[in-house]
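User: Hey, quick favor. My workstation is busy. Could you predict this chain's structure for me?
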Amino acid sequence: MSINLTRRAALAASGLALLLSVPAFAQQNQTLRIGVSPGPHAEILEKVKPIAAKKGLDIKIVEFSDYVVPNQALDAGELEANSFQHQPYLDNQVKDRGYKLVSVGLTVNFPLGIYSSKYKSWAEIPDGATVAIQNDPTNGGRSLLLLQDKGVIKLKDGVGVKPSVADITANPKKLKIIEIDAAQAPRSLADVGAASINTNYAVDAKIEPTSAILREDPKGPYVNVIAVREADKDKPWVKTLVEAYHSPEIKAFVTERFKGNVLAGW
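Assistant: No problem, here it is.
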C-alpha cells in the first residue's frame, strides 16, 4: 500500500514538473520574421536558421525586392528584425521617416561595383556616356564617392557619406548620371553605358561581382547590420540571433560561398 502511494506521488511529481517545464520550452521556441533582400542576405540567413533553431529561435525569412519596404514592415511590427542594409542607410531612414529602429549586430560587407554590358573596362567608357546610380541618398551617394575615389568626378568638400549629383564639381568625361531604383540597376545595363549595382542585386541577377569595371575598396562605414525595433533591442532573443549569425559556421560559409565578393563584417 505504501509503495503504491509512493509510486503515485512520484508520478504526480514528475507530471507536475513536466507541466511546469512546458511554458519555459515554448518561450524558448520563439518565431522571428526577418526581412531580407534576395541573394546573399537570404542565402546567409538560410544557413543561420538551423543554428538559431538549436538555440530556440524559429526564423521565418521574408524576402523584399526593394530597400524601402523592409524598414516600413519592421517599424510597423510586421517583422521582428531585418538584415539587408548598411548603417548609413538605416541612419538616413531613421532620420527621414522617424522610425524607431536600431542596429544590434554587424553582418557582411558588399563592395559596391560599377558594371557594363557594353564595355570591358572603364577606359572604354566614352565621353557623354550615361551612368546609372541608385536613387536613394545613401547608395547613390556611395556610388558618387566610388566615382570620385577612382578619379572619374570631383565632389564638393565636406559632403560626407551622402553626396548628391548636385555636389559634383568636376565631370571631365561629361557623363550623364541618372538615378534609378537600386533593384532595377541590373536591368538597366542594356540601356546605359554603365550602372552602379549593389552586390546582392548583382549576385541575384547572375552578374559576377569581380566583373565590375570599377569596384569599391572594402572600407568605410558600409558593413551591413541586423536591425530591430528600439523597444526590442535588449530582449534575450536579439542576443541569441546575433550569436547565431556570428557563429564560426556562418563566417566559413560566407568565405567559401562568395569567394571574397561578400565579406564577413564581424
